[in-house]
Structure formats: structure tokens, C-alpha cells
């Protein structure tokens, strides 16, 4: 499918895949070593308090992401997409370096807990501009249908980074190696990612629109039309285009499903293995590693299907199937008798989990070009922060009161919300593009009006 692309386009796809892989290796290394590292950086306590501390350590990565979204969204929309992805990779390298040298709780007390939480927050902020920047870059760089496949490859890179982090965690814990080796490796490969991404160029769509808007204002002033130029600058240019609130809400709901199933598959089932079967941390990490490999297979299948099946159709089918699985999930958990049976259940849930892949470009093109980075990062960050917070802390109390049936209180509403969001974008696509979307952005309307008032170039 990429045979028709220019050399620089193929190079950009490759650089973004490598950078995203490295970034998510660093981000997920702590998440999947949490069963080991939480005992090193947090005080030992009763099971209930330990569960809350684990939830806090997990959520700290996501709770401040909306602030990172505003920061990197502004940079991405006003300075450029390339600058953002280089900055975020640099921040990730610094946080990994700090964690590799951080003393434990037994050495410096509660300060270790706060410092490691601060590092996780820094990683969460940096990851905010990472995957979104890569997806927007490819959406603006490529046309349909290549953009569907390319953005799906970003998801594969995320999964590979996660699996590689799990693999390193498995290697370290199973062989009794120093856990700091993983973070030293993370810091080193993040530096490689920074160097690689400096070769990227700005996306043609963003650069072209910025140049044309600048030319229009300069031409107006050159012709003595200062009043017209000021009017355009304050009321009519593309960067002032309004965002459709219903579209934002639909995108939020579509992207909110994944956090629930990620937390259930890796964290909830990890604690289930520990509490019911008495599994050691190295066994839990190893099983999660196998689950992550299965998820990579899932994304590969989805990526292959997007060449023949429309992305929103894939989302609808998966959402209907997982909704049925959720209804019987508590009964299945109550009947699990071995870690192997739980693995099959984890694999089933991750295969049909709610996700925006491979329809991410469809969600993006309905956002204005000069607000796209900010809007999507805020949507992504707020959905992760809110849903991870509700899921991680909510399940602590819901499952204490209702057992595994407490999952219904979170999973069922999320399935309904996801289906509504997918249906909304499906309706937009049918109305505007007769179900065969092209790179048709709402910003084009504003640009056309601007062309009618002023020449865009000399």
C-alpha cells in the first residue's frame, strides 16, 4: 500500500514508528514492574492500603496529562508538529535517567515515593505529545487510504514498546538482575529516539496553511489594507475556527474505552493472579508479557483488515462483541481455576477491547487544522486521566462490595458510550463523503472564504 509514497514520506513513517516504540518502552517499563517496584518505593502496609498506593502510582502518570495536553497542544499548533515530538522524547529520556539512579524507600524514606511519582508524572506529560503528535503527523502527511494503515502502525509500535518493556521486566526479575538496568536501557534508547526525530520535516499541510495565512496578512498590509488584515487576524483566519462540541464529545467517548480494558487486562488480572493463586511478581510479569504479544497480533490483524474493511466498521464489530463478553465476564472470573484459564480470558478481552484503532484519522480530520493538536491531546489526556482514575480507584471499592460484578458498573456504561461515539462519526462520514472519505477538512471552508477576500500569494 505504501509503494506510491515518496521517499521522504516513507522515511517519516519509519522514524515515527521507531520513536513511538522507544517512548512507550520507557513509559510502560514502570507500569509492568509495579508489582516489584511499589514494594521498593512505597511503605509496606495492609492489602487495602497497598491497593490504593498501587492505584495512586498508576494514576499519577495520567492525572496531569491534561496540563501536558495544553502545553504540547499549544506548541504543536503554534510552533510545529516536529518540535513537539522531539521535546517529548527528550523529557522521557531525562525521567528514565532519574529513575535509574533513584534511592529506594528504605534508603531515603517517603521522599522516594514522591520522587518516583514525580518521575511518573513527567513521563505521562511527555507521552502526551508523543503518540498524538505521530498520529497527527501521519494524518496530515498522507492521503486516504494510506493514512489508515500508517496510523495503525503507530499502534503496533506502541504495543511493541509495551511488550519490549515487559520482556525486559521479565528478564530482570526472572534472572535476579538489578531492576535499574531496565531504566538505564530506557534512557539510552530514548536518546536514540531524540536523535532520529531531528531528521523529520514539518508536515506539508500544517506548514502550507501557516505560510498561506502569513502571506495573506502580509499582502493585506502591503496593499494598505491594515483594517482588513486586523479583521482577518481577529475574526476569520483558520486558527479562529470553532470546534464542534459534539464532535469533541464523540471523540472523547471513542477514546475512553481502551483505558478500562487495559487496566482490567494488566493490573486487575495481575492482582487477581497475586491474591487468588499466590503468583510471584516474576510470574505475573511473564504472563502479562505473553498477553502483550497476543495484543500485538490483534493490532496486526486489525491493520491487515483495514486494507479491505472500512475502519469504523471494524470498530463497530469489536464494540458489539466486547459488550457481549462484558455481560458474562464476572461469571467467567468466578469460575477461573488456574492462571492459564485467566490468560485465555485476558487474551479474549484484549482482542476485542474498545479502541479507536484504526479509525484515528477519521476522528482527527473533523478537528480544525490550527486547533487539531490541542483538541486531540486534551481529548486523549482527559479521557485517560478520568477513566484511569475512575477505573483504578473505583474497582478497589466496587469489587470489595460486589466482587467481580463490580466491573459492570464501569464496563457496561463505557461500551454504550463507545458505540454512540462510533455511530456519530459513521453518520458524519456518510453525510459528507458518501462513505468514501478523502482529506476533506472543515478548515477548507474558512480558507475558501479567505481567498475570496485577499490574494494568498503574489
Would you give an account of this structure?
The protein has 20 helices and no strands. With 458 residues, it is mostly helical. The chain has one domain (7-453): Up-down Bundle (Growth Hormone, Chain: A), CATH 1.20.1250.20. Helix 5 packs antiparallel against helix 7 (110-141), helix 5 (81-100) packs antiparallel against helix 9 (180-197) and helix 15 packs antiparallel against helix 19. The model is unreliable at 231-239 and 434-458 (pLDDT under 50).
Helix fraction bin: over 70%
CATH superfamily: MFS general substrate transporter like domains
Mean pLDDT: 78
Largest sheet: none
As for the CATH topology, it is: Growth Hormone, Chain: A
Radius of gyration, Cα only, in angstroms?
A: 23 Å
The number of E-state strands comes to 0
Question: Could you name the CATH class?
Answer: Mainly Alpha
User: How many domains, in number, for the residues?
Assistant: 1
Q: Uncertain spans, ≥5 residues at pLDDT below 50? A: 231-239, 434-458
Overall structural class, as computed from helix and strand content, comes to: mainly alpha
Distance between the termini: 38 Å
Topology order in helix (H) and strand (E) letters: HHHHHHHHHHHHHHHHHHHH
Task: Note the overall shape.
Answer: globular
Q: Report the β-strand fraction as a percent range.
A: under 5%
Q: Do you know the CATH architecture? A: Up-down Bundle
Structure annotation, total helices: 20
Amino acid at each position: 500500500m505504501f509503494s506510491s509514497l515518496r521517499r521522504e514520506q516513507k522515511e517519516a513513517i519509519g522514524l515515527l514508528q521507531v520513536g513511538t516504540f522507544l517512548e512507550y518502552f520507557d513509559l510502560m517499563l514502570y507500569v509492568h514492574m509495579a508489582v516489584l517496584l511499589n514494594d521498593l518505593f512505597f511503605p509496606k502496609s495492609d492489602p487495602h492500603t497497598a491497593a490504593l498506593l498501587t492505584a495512586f502510582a498508576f494514576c499519577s502518570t495520567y492525572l496531569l496529562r491534561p496540563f501536558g495536553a495544553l502545553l504540547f497542544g499549544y506548541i504543536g499548533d503554534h510552533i510545529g508538529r516536529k518540535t513537539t515530538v522531539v521535546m517529548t522524547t527528550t523529557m522521557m529520556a531525562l525521567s528514565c535517567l532519574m529513575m535509574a539512579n533513584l534511592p529506594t524507600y528504605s534508603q531515603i524514606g517517603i521522599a522516594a515515593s514522591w520522587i518516583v511519582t514525580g518521575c511518573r508524572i513527567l513521563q505521562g506529560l511527555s507521552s502526551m505529545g508523543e503518540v498524538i503528535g505521530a498520529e497527527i503527523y501521519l494524518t496530515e502527511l498522507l492521503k486516504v487510504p494510506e493514512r489508515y494503515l500508517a496510523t495503525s502502525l503507530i499502534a503496533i509500535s506502541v504495543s511493541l514498546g509495551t511488550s519490549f518493556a515487559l520482556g525486559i521486566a521479565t528478564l530482570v526479575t526472572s534472572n535476579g538482575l538489578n531492576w535499574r538496568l531496565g531504566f538505564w536501557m530506557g534512557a539510552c534508547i530514548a536518546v536514540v529516539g531524540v536523535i532520529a526525530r531531528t531528521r523529520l520535516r514539518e508536515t506539508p499541510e500544517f506548514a502550507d496553511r501557516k505560510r498561506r495565512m502569513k502571506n495573506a496578512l502580509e499582502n493585506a498590509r502591503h496593499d494598505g489594507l491594515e483594517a482588513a488584515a486586523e479583521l482577518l487576524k481577529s475574526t476569520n483566519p483558520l486558527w479562529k475556527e470553532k470546534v464542534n462540541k459534539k464532535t469533541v464529545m464523540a471523540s472523547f467517548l471513542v477514546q475512553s474505552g481502551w483505558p478500562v480494558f487495559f487496566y482490567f487486562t494488566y493490573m486487575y488480572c495481575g492482582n487477581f493472579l497475586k491474591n487468588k493463586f499466590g503468583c510471584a511478581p516474576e510470574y505475573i510479569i511473564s504472563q502479562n508479557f505473553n498477553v502483550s504479544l497476543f495484543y500485538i497480533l490483534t493490532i496486526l490483524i486489525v491493520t491487515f483488515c483495514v486494507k479491505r474493511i472500512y475502519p469504523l466498521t471494524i470498530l463497530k464489530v469489536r464494540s458489539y462483541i466486547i459488550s457481549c463478553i462484558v455481560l458474562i465476564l464476572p461469571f467467567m472470573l468466578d469460575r477461573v481455576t488456574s492462571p492459564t484459564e485467566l490468560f485465555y480470558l485476558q487474551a479474549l478481552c484484549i482482542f476485542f477491547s474498545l479502541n479507536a484503532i484504526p479509525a484515528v484519522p477519521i476522528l482527527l480530520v473533523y478537528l480544525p487544522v490550527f486547533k487539531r493538536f490541542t483538541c486531540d491531546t486534551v481529548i486523549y489526556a482527559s479521557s485517560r486521566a478520568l477513566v484511569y482514575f475512575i477505573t483504578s480507584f473505583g474497582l478497589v471499592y466496587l469489587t470489595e462490595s460486589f466482587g467481580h460484578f463490580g466491573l459492570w458498573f464501569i464496563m457496561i456504561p463505557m461500551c454504550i458510550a463507545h458505540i454512540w461515539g462510533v455511530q456519530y462519526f459513521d453518520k458524519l462520514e456518510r453525510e459528507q463523503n458518501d462513505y468514501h472519505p478523502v482529506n476533506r477538512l472543515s478548515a477548507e471552508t474558512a480558507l475558501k472564504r479567505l481567498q475570496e477576500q485577499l490574494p494568498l500569494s503574489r
